[in-house]
Amino acid sequence: MSFGSQDDSDEVMNEINMTPLVDVMLVLLIIFIITVPVMKDSVNVDLPRASNEPELILPETVNLSITADGQYHWNQEAISDEELKNRLRTAGSKAKPPDLHIRGHKDVRYERVAQAMAAAQTAGVRKIGFITDPAQP
Question: Which is deepest, 1, 82, 121, 129, by most CB within 10 Å?
Answer without folding.
Answer: 121
